[in-house]
Amino acid sequence: MAVQIQMRRGTASQWQSSNPTLASGEWGLETDTDKFKIGNGTDAWNSITTYSSLGVGTAGGTMTGTLNFGTDGSGVDVNFYSGTAGDHMKWDASEEQLIIEGTNGTVALHVTDGDVTIADGDLTVSGDLTINGATTTVSTTNTLVEDSLIELNTGASSNANDLGIVMERGSTGNNAIIAWDESADKFTMGTTTATGASTGDLSITAGTLVADLEGDVTGDVTGNASGTAATVTGAAQSAITSVGTMTGLAVDGTSQLYECVTEAISGNKTPALTDAGKVFYCSQSGGTQTITIDGSISWPVGTQMVFVASNTSTVTFAESNSTSLDSKDDNKSIDGRYASAALINYGSNTWFLIGALA
């Protein structure tokens, strides 16, 4: 024969209104909260302040106090299921890890030994996020930062480390870096074997910067400069000690500066543009040496060349390709041994021929 045991029951308001005294060990259940009290045979209902809770039921409930599953050292797995099939949270007692799985068993959150992995979905932190540790690794396709300023080395009271951004290049070559060189107190950029984990005074090989510069450049400029002509203004330079090789540096648009080069010629000569500024020694013995000026060459205005009759030949000058040589009395030959003549371009294919002429 079946035995049915019923617990004394009523709503919370009914219990409070009737305020009975339960017998010792007698249970009284609040049907609308799933809470219960156990009588002691002395205190009325309202005087018993300690509740217990079934924690289950369609009406829900609140558990107070500590809820243990298993015993210390021999726990059991605990599953919390959602209303969606496949979604649940699990405490895995044997692996000592907390796992939240999404639909179809995809792991959304995995916590074990202090490590947290979020594998399914986005993480949004509404408050401040503080990360303490040695290294923060961000592995994304693109990193977007809304802040207008990024501060490196924050909180440092003093600094001995170079600061900057290191760009990993893998097997292509040494890493690229844009940095503040703390020891030199200057900005620098180039390549380095350092990584983002490096500290101290980094070894950086200066790289090439491709950019348009606007504004003043202060300090020494070293190396080679190339490109289109530009205007250099500023304080006068008292001395330029070394400039390398210059082959026609325009100073003010009308003047030319040349390196003084001498050359001996033993026959006829048609000067090229690279001959501008030279002094020629006409060293042929006897006969005639003809110097022909080619008008097809774009000679800069102000180009000069000097010719010296260093031997016994007769040195004469000839015009070619619409060149015009203007000389006193239209003389076009140097007047004997050790005499000289100079050619000066004063407009396109027009030249002055001056000197000891005959």
Structure description:
The chain has one helix spanning 12-18, and strands spanning 8-10, 27-30, 35-38, 52-53, 70-71, 74-75, 78-81, 88-92, 97-101, 107-112, 115-118, 163-167, 175-181, 186-192, 205-206, 247-250, 256-258, 262-265, 279-282, 288-294, 304-309, 314-320, 324-326, 340-347, 350-355. 2% of the residues lie in helices and 32% in strands. The termini are far apart. A hairpin with a 4-residue loop joins strand 13 (175-181) and strand 14 (186-192). The model has no long low-confidence stretch (mean pLDDT 83). The chain contains one helix and 25 strands. Among the domains are: 8-53, Seminal Fluid Protein  PDC-109 (Domain B); 76-117; 163-206, no CATH class; 256-355, Sandwich (Jelly Rolls), CATH 2.60.120. The chain is mainly beta and 358 residues long. The strands form seven sheets. Strands 18-19-21-24-25-23 form a six-stranded mixed beta sheet, with no helix packed on it. The protein has a five-stranded antiparallel beta sheet with strand order 7-8-9-10-11, with no helix packed on it.
List the helices and strands and how they pair.
Elements: E1 8-10, H1 12-18, E2 27-30, E3 35-38, E4 52-53, E5 70-71, E6 74-75, E7 78-81, E8 88-92, E9 97-101, E10 107-112, E11 115-118, E12 163-167, E13 175-181, E14 186-192, E15 205-206, E16 247-250, E17 256-258, E18 262-265, E19 279-282, E20 288-294, E21 304-309, E22 314-320, E23 324-326, E24 340-347, E25 350-355
Parallel strand pairs: 1-2, 18-19, 19-21, 20-22, 23-25
Antiparallel strand pairs: 2-3, 3-4, 5-6, 7-8, 8-9, 9-10, 10-11, 12-13, 13-14, 14-15, 16-17, 21-24, 24-25
